[in-house]
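Today's session is about reading a structure prediction critically. Students often jump straight to the picture, but the first step is always the sequence itself: look for stretches that repeat, for charged clusters, for runs of hydrophobic residues. Only then move on to the predicted structure, which in these notes is written as discrete structure tokens rather than atom positions. Here is the chain we will use throughout the hour.
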Amino acid sequence: MDSASPQNSPVLPPDQLRAARRLFIASALSFVVAAALGALFRFGMLRGDFFGLQAGDLRHAHSHLMLMGWATPALIALITARAPALGLQLPLRATLSTGWLALVLAVLSTPAFALYGYRSAAIGEANIPIAAALSGVAMLVWYAFAAIFLFALRRAPNPHTPNPARSLLTIATGAMVVSSAGAWALAAQMITKSGDALSQQLAVHFFVDLFGIGWLLVGALALLRAETSAAASATEIRARWMLLIGLPLVFLAGMPAADLAPRILLIGHLAAALSAAGFMALSLPLWRALKGWRRVALGLVMASALMLAAIAIPPVAQWGQSAGLRLFFLHTAFAGAVTLALISVAARTFGPSRSPAPATFALAIALLLMTLLPLTGLMPAALSGRWVLVSALAGALGATMLSALATLQALLPRTTPSPTPSQAPRQQ
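Below is the predicted structure for this chain, in token form.
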């Protein structure tokens, strides 16, 4: 698979690229705030309390802003900017509006999650589940984006001409819509105070795994796939079917073995194996075609796939749960692979001087992951101690400052002109 670089490949006009870039930069600021919330959580672990907040609520606010306020609108911004390479004609205002609405709702709901979680807040004489209500509206925005995308698929200039990146993005968008069933189920149980701990945990795992792996990770891989114009092989087509079959059920593999029947767990392990094989089969051919930080991002995608392959083995999955490695997997996949893929593709799309520096973000991600690993069960008990929490806090603070620096540098006025149709990155 060679990396072609035709100079006349279709791109958006400069004013439309600037509109997509504004949404992307605003989303990157959400990454900075989410990283700061993660640092605050680690500081709470160090001092033994969370400033009057519940630890789970603060962690939920952090992850909510990272997934909904950073990754989702940033992905929408890049899908819009790379629409020609995806073989799509997206309505600019409508598509970017869904990204802006998703961002605003995520920002508004973050303090509500930190203060109340899914619980109701007393406002006058009424008790209103603020975070759940805002999240419900956000999911309606996702449906609006999915409808726009589906309409664009039907109106594609060459709908019968295979576009591998577009096919991956179709899977990702479908995963986003289907995953919302888990969020609705969880919100309904929390609001009505019904269901048991197992049903709530199933809803959480279904939503987080399908939304994060299916929508964000597959969506990021679709953007990387759009960087090459090579035709899809038979293996790639089979790999997409593996994702379609495996992703909706992979959440079962992350459930505690004592909570589910062995046959149900086996389905989850098989789904994890299918998903891992699909990701690897899609990623390996891209390794030669992608260069620089896009290749590093692809490496993190493959690392995430290897972790999925590990949980396909029941004893390894049980050991990983007891060692607390799920959190490390989620950070590798979402804060690592998804984030660096978005940042590196943005640098190609909007120009290096108009985007956060991938090298700085890569350093932030490395700090975050390296200082998170000692918090897991991989750290020998003899080596654990207060220094583990101190290093975790230092890593989170370092990641926050580095991501803030990279994002603010992208906001500074530069003498380098914005990309033009002849200069902007093209489909490779």
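Discussion point for the tutorial: The chain has one domain: 16-231+327-411.
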